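User: Structure with beta-L-arabinofuranose, tokens only please.
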Amino acid sequence: AVTAFSLVSTSCAEKAEDYRGNPVVTDMFTADPAPMVHDDTLYIYTGHDIQNETDKFFKMHDWYAFSTKDMVDYEKHGPLLSVDDFAWAKGDAFAAHTIERGGKFYWYVSIRHKDIRVNEGFSIGVAVADSPLGPFKDAIGEALITDETPNSVVLNIDPAVYIDDDGQAYLFWGSWNEGRWVKLKDNMLEMEGEVHTLEAKNFFEAPFIHKRDDMYYLTYASHYPSTTEYSTSDSITGPWTYRGVINDLLPKSETNHQGIVEFKGNWYFIYHSAALPTGGVYRRSLCVDLLEYDEDGLIKKVERTDT
Ligand code: FUB
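Assistant:
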């Protein structure tokens, strides 16, 4: 099923004002957006909140994608992937991230393992497809990261993958103030070497890496309820220098899980808020705003347009 959504603007806009129209998706709740550019299209992969208005935990079973060529009209695709696609999983389709390598698309997901009961049982799995819109299937048949992985964290969620200029892939993840990173083999399905502790001031969860010029940016949720804060480095492996807050606390949502992407000449801050009238902590919505840098390459605070 394909549905189109429109923001207010009618052209590929240059000013934040043109993006008033958040949230992008209004006919369902969408969370934990992860952007990926492929060919001339921006794909935003999201989770899907199906919580009613009174229960007190996330209720999530599957993932969608929203594609746009102009930041104005979006197409909905999905669900493209669900808990049921991972035979070893039992529920909780938390944050995910998709990346292309060698013509294949790898979708790293947070999901609860049915056989692992240490800590919370959250694990990171990988699905693979030959196109950005699937069909996706479990690439390993087991989890890539679990509570049994040496030096894992209490909540193994929120994967973010980055392929550096030399072709080396890295997986970042973590929550509740504990972040981790590990190199991935070229097949994107196995760890290479040891799991490292992510040292970044105020890290809470939702790591995301992007690079602009020669600077690496590690953005993440800080504290809980979360702001979005960031650190920079001249190396993907750090050390990371703390740079401050780029997005304040949100009204009604305790999380705001961000991704950052350059698309057709603009940089975008892609996140969720609880901006729909019936939105809330467990009923979130994909939002998109412009991201700008100062002359030193530091990120300016986002002028959010979700409210
Ligand atoms: O959506 C479930 C969890 O909430 C995500 O994994 C976290 O990043 C937070 O957004």
